[in-house]
Prior knowledge:
- The structure is a single chain.
- The chain is mainly beta.
- It folds into two domains: 7-120, Rieske Iron-sulfur Protein, CATH 2.102.10; 146-255, Naphthalene 1,2-dioxygenase Alpha Subunit, Chain A, domain 1 (Alpha-Beta Complex).
- Helices cover 7% and strands 33% of the residues.
- The protein has four helices and 15 strands.
- It has helices at 146-152, 159-162, 171-174, 199-202; strands at 7-12, 21-25, 28-34, 40-44, 58-60, 63-65, 72-73, 79-81, 99-102, 105-109, 178-181, 185-195, 211-220, 224-233, 248-255.
- The strands form four sheets. Strands 11-12-13-14-15 form a five-stranded antiparallel beta sheet, with no helix packed on it. The chain has a four-stranded antiparallel beta sheet with strand order 5-6-7-8, with no helix packed on it.
- A hairpin with a 3-residue loop joins β11 (178-181) and β12.
- The longest helix is centred in the middle third of the chain and has 7 residues, at 146-152.
- The protein binds FE2/S2 (inorganic) cluster.
- FE2/S2 (inorganic) cluster is lined by residues 47, 49-50, 52, 66, 68-71.
Amino acid sequence: MFLKNAWYVAAWADEIDYTLRQIEVLGEKICVYRSSGGNVVALEDACPHRKLPLSMGRLNNDTVECGYHGLTFDCSGQCILAPGSGRIPQGARVHAYPVHEKYELVWIWMGDPILSDTSKIFEVEHYDDPEWGINRGKALEIECNYLLVTDNLLDPSHVAWVHQSSFGQAATKDVPLRITRGDQGITVWRWMMDVDPAPFYKKIVEFEGHCDRLQHYEVRYPSTALIRAIFTPAGTGGVDGPLHDKTFVMDSYNFMTPVSEG
Length: 262
Ligand code: FES
């Protein structure tokens, strides 16, 4: 079962151009393309006549011509041409999914279109802030239930064993984890006080000696994760810590898009 009334990442924005492509999200096949005006269009990828995927058809002045008998659909999914027929068949339309581009990603709404409020798209803090650096990962295709990935991204306890040479350190074995539940999701976190920086971060932080370290692992429903790492000179961290001009903060965002039940 999937949660449909939510925004999911469908693609990187630069993957969608004036070409018909099929993607699959939540078990639904979707025909996507970018119109000549630059808008991303996402249509149910099954012609209502004999169910040929529209992604196997042709783009014609921003409309999609079915490759089987030529029914043609506009960007809203409405059939606007039925060759060889004197009229447009009643009910000849396909579902058009609400889409929105933000953070160079294409977001798609899989549920009731009336509820597709773009202000509900996950906020990436500091995204346009020139004071912050940004790195982009790549899309990973992982053959497992997406909830196993959200589980991993809520689990700071594994780093002491899996990431010993990078994020792990003695304190990640010993310091108890805290859990905060909210309306939007759940966070597992802990401050580790007066410890060595973990090996990976030791090379990055701009201070010497011990640090206070935050591990903040947050998942917002249904499947967006934020991992925040803070390394700050010892004595400047903690829940009410003042922080410091050498405090290092890294936010890592992960957007899990379930493809299919499998
Ligand atoms: S299957 Fe699309 S027009 Fe016939």
